[in-house]
Design goal:
alpha/beta, Rossmann fold, globular, 42% helix, six-stranded parallel sheet
Length: 405
C-alpha cells in the first residue's frame, strides 16, 4: 500500500504532538513494509497513492483545498482530528486581555478571531479570515473524509458534539516512544527517525539517547512539568497552585511562537523554588523523568497526555488533567486534577508526593500503547478503507484489536 502522510503547512514553525504522531506512524509503516511518503504541499502528487492521511482538525481552513484535490483524484482520505473543544480554556484559562476578550465573545466569533490572528502571522488576510465561519468549515471538512481516526472515545464524543453525523469513526490509541519503556536500542533508533517531505530520512543519533541510570525511588524529589510554554498547558496556574507547598518545581519546554511572552509571564510568577528550562534533548529529559517524584500535566485539555505516560514509564508518579482523553490512557494509575481549580491541582500533587508505591504505567504502556501496536491497528483500518469494509471496524467503545492480540 502506498500512503501519503500530510503535514500541516506550519509544522516547522510550530512542531507539536500531531507531528510526532505522524512521524512515528510513518516510520513504523515503513518498518512493516509499506510505501510511505510525507508531504506539506497543498496539491501533492497523488499518482500511485492509495490513501492520504490528514492530521489536525484545527488547520481545516488551510487543508480544505488539499482535501478537495484528493477527492477530485479519487484517492481515499482519512483524518486524525486530534480535537478537543477549546471553549472552557478560551473563557477561563487565557491570561491577560486575551482571556477577557474570549470570555465575552460568542463561540463562532471567538474561533474566527483566533484563526484570523494565526493567518495574519503567516501573511494572510486578517479581514478575510474574520469573515470566514471557522466552525462551519470544520464541520464540512470532517464530513468530507472516508474515515475519521480518533485517539480516544472521549475525542469521538467531542467530535459528535461538533458534528452529530460523523463519517465512519475508529479509535486508534497513540503510542509512547520505546526510549521510555524499553531497553531495545534498535527501537529507540527507529522511533527517533523522521521522514522529510523531500523524501530523505533524518536518522537519529545514538548520542541523543544517552540517559543516566534511574535513581532509587527513595531519592526521587520534586515536581516536573514537561510541556511547551503555552497558556493552554497552564504552567502559570501550576506555579500558583503549588506555591503553598514550597516544593521544588521544574518546568521544561519550548516556546509557542503564538505566545512569545508566556515564558516571561511564568518567570514573573515563579518563586525561588521554581526552575524554568528550555526544551531538552530526549536523553536529558529521560534523566529528569527518572529523578522527579511527581510529573504534572495540568493542561486545560490533552487528547492523550503522552508526557504523563513517558514520565510514568520512568517511575514518576503522574498527575494529569481530567480534561480530554487522559483517563483512557492512564486509567487508575494517575492522579487527576481540574486546571481551573488550584486546590484540585494542589491536592492531586500532594497525594502523589505522599504515595508509597509507584503506579506501574510501564506495564500498561507495553500491553497497549506502543507505536507498533498503534500502527498495526492503523493498518487494519487502512486495509478496510481500501477494501470498502470500513463499517466492520467502526467502533464507538474500543480500539480495533491488533493482529497479534
Amino acid at each position: 500500500m502506498r500512503i501519503l502522510m500530510l503535514l500541516r503547512p506550519d509544522w516547522r514553525d510550530l512542531p507539536g504532538g500531531d507531528v510526532v504522531q505522524l512521524q512515528r506512524w510513518a516510520v513504523w509503516l515503513q518498518e512493516l513494509g509499506h510505501d510511505v511518503e510525507v508531504s506539506d504541499e497543498v496539491r501533492p502528487d497523488l499518482r500511485g497513492v492509495d490513501l492520504v492521511h490528514f492530521h489536525n482538525l484545527s488547520r481545516a481552513n488551510v487543508l480544505c483545498e488539499t482535501l478537495e484535490h484528493c477527492r477530485k483524484a479519487g484517492v481515499a482520505t482519512v483524518l486524525t482530528p486530534l480535537y478537543w473543544p477549546t471553549d472552557e480554556y478560551d473563557c477561563l484559562g487565557r491570561p491577560g486581555w486575551h482571556g477577557l476578550a474570549a470570555a465575552v465573545l460568542p463561540a463562532n466569533l471567538r474561533e474566527r478571531v483566533k484563526a484570523a490572528l494565526r493567518v495574519r502571522k503567516q501573511g494572510g488576510s486578517l479581514w478575510r479570515s474574520l469573515l470566514t465561519d471557522v466552525l462551519e468549515i470544520s464541520r464540512r471538512f470532517l464530513a468530507g473524509f472516508d474515515v475519521l481516526i480518533a485517539n480516544s472515545l472521549a475525542e469521538v464524543d467531542a467530535l459528535h458534539r461538533l458534528l452529530p453525523t460523523l463519517p465512519p469513526t475508529c479509535i486508534v490509541p497513540s503510542g509512547v516512544d520505546a526510549f521510555y519503556w524499553s531497553d531495545d536500542r534498535s527501537l529507540w533508533a527507529l522511533e527517533g527517525d523522521w521522514l522529510l517531505p523531500d523524501g530523505n530520512r533524518l536518522r537519529a543519533s545514538s548520542a541523543d539517547f544517552e540517559a543516566a541510570r534511574p535513581i532509587p525511588d527513595s531519592q526521587r524529589e520534586g515536581v516536573l512539568c514537561v510541556a511547551r510554554f503555552d497558556p493552554q498547558k497552564a504552567q502559570h496556574l501550576l506555579i500558583q497552585a503549588l506555591k503553598p507547598l514550597q516544593v521544588p518545581l521544574t518546568l521544561v519546554g519550548g516556546d509557542n511562537p503564538n505566545y512569545p511572552d508566556y515564558r516571561s509571564y511564568c518567570r514573573r510568577l515563579a518563586g525561588p523554588e521554581v526552575r524554568i528550562l528550555p526544551r531538552q534533548p530526549v536523553g536529558k529529559l529521560k534523566e529528569m523523568y527518572q529523578a522527579c517524584r511527581v510529573h504534572v500535566l495540568a493542561s486545560w485539555y490533552e487528547t492523550t497526555g503522552l508526557t504523563a505516560l513517558e514520565a510514568g514509564c520512568c517511575g514518576a508518579r503522574s498527575v494529569v488533567t481530567s480534561r480530554g482523553g487522559t483517563r483512557e490512557y492512564s486509567d487508575d494509575l494517575a492522579w487527576y486534577c481540574h486546571p481551573s481549580d488550584p486546590r484540585s491541582v494542589r491536592r492531586a500533587v500532594e497525594q502523589a508526593l505522599q504515595a508509597e508505591a509507584t503506579p506501574d504505567l510501564r506495564s500498561r504502556v507495553r500491553r497497549g500503547f506502543t507505536w507498533e501496536h498503534s500502527t498495526r491497528s492503523l493498518l487494519r483500518i487502512y486495509e478496510a478503507v481500501a477494501a470498502g469494509r470500513i463499517n466492520e471496524f467502526t467502533t464507538m467503545a474500543s480500539p480495533p484489536a491488533c493482529p497479534d492480540e
